[in-house]
TrEMBL record, chains A, B:
It comes from the Bacteria. SMART domains: HTH_MARR (SM00347). Pfam families: MarR. Residues 39-174 form the HTH marR-type domain. The lineage of its organism: Bacteria, Bacillati, Bacillota, Bacilli, Bacillales. PANTHER family: TRANSCRIPTIONAL REGULATOR, MARR (PTHR42756), TRANSCRIPTIONAL REPRESSOR OF EMRAB OPERON (PTHR42756:SF1). Gene3D superfamilies: Winged helix-like DNA-binding domain superfamily/Winged helix DNA-binding domain. This is MarR family transcriptional regulator. Signal peptide: none annotated.
DNA sequence: GCTTATAGTTAGATAATCTAATTGTAATCA
DNA sequence: TGATTACAATTAGATTATCTAACTATAAGC
């Protein structure tokens, strides 16, 4: 008797890949006339690329049992650890989430002993947050994979392409951060 | 899902923006020696850019009461609507999610009358999915905003920068899709 | 000393995902 | 041809990440 797989084996009837062309055709029919369609084409590619690199990072981090957003928070704690001002509020402000959401993230990390909370004795409403040695240890284990994954995103590009891209990406990121009013 | 919209008046004690430098310094100390740090720097920027454009798109679509991932599904239905092979399974395959997750998405869209399910009479295990006129109407209302948002991502770049970027982005997206085994 | 503001948490909700189990149908094969 | 296996979809139940609103404790202002 044959026993069974586990892959949830997706059937043969895959939808064909269409590529970008039908999207551009639809854009031609549905974009407002003051939209620059060549730029929008690039924006669409950026959206897809963002999606794909996010998936790739999630995939590579999944074995560590932590998501990129939680790693992000731990990095924040490391990079600001000399300052005393790391509180649930300031974390929420930096990550662009509500205080209640920060509480939930911190609960999760605290339960695993990767961060600690300590009440501010001068203002007992406030709580200081810091990473523990175990947390730092975890991050040190993860970071080599994190950086090599970042490296891998553009590994298929030629060196000259990378040079050009670098300048543009820095400018682009600055522009987006300015317009969103955020920034790391 | 992300919301991140209102303000909830965040207090004064904001964490300072550090910029990329401390990240690069940390990378110097923690990256494996076969990581190309210049490339990883660009990868990090791409990750941040992806995050920022996703936020910008979410923000601009939020007033339509639909997320980008659900719009994505509706676009899929539109672009494949001549073919008969659109089923929960094929949707799950294309979106890279499980069939159960596709069922949940379709339930949500069906409840709002934007899609319809119809049992395949030749093989009663299968269900065909198609967009309704109301669904198509909704998409037509959203798309101008969607395209202009895509356009806006790179609106601060010079024309020459855009020209260079386009070629690189197409190559980059192709490379990522190939490595992830996905594609639109 | 009341009143108001602030920081954090709790309670309860929703969205987007997952795995495992279930249901109904089709195909295989002994 | 009837039992077994495979497959498509759904259901049930869980987790993660977010939200808003309400609550608690503390500090500050008048």
């Amino acid at each position: 008797m044959r026993k069974k797989i586990e892959k949830e084996h997706v059937g043969e009837q895959q939808l064909p890949r269409l590529g970008v062309a039908p999207y551009l055709e639809l854009m031609g029919k549905t974009a407002s006339k003051d939209t620059n369609q060549a730029s929008a084409h690039m924006g669409l590619l950026l959206l897809w690329i963002g999606d794909n690199i996010q998936d790739m990072m999630d995939l590579n981090l999944s074995s560590f049992g932590i998501t990129e957003s939680k790693l992000d928070l731990l990095l924040l704690l490391i990079l600001h650890q000399d300052k005393e001002g790391i509180t649930p509020s300031s974390i929420a402000g930096r990550l662009g989430i509500r205080r209640a959401s920060a509480t939930a993230l911190l609960d999760w990390l605290e339960k695993r002993n990767w961060i600690e909370r300590k009440t501010n004795e001068n203002n007992r409403r406030m709580v200081h947050v810091h990473i523990t040695p175990e947390g730092r240890n975890l991050v040190d284990q993860i970071l080599p994979t994190f950086w090599s994954t970042c490296d891998s995103f553009i590994s298929d590009l030629e060196v000259e392409e990378q040079v050009v891209l670098k300048k543009i990406l820095m400018k682009l990121n600055g522009s987006l951060e300015r317009r969103l009013g955020v920034g790391r």
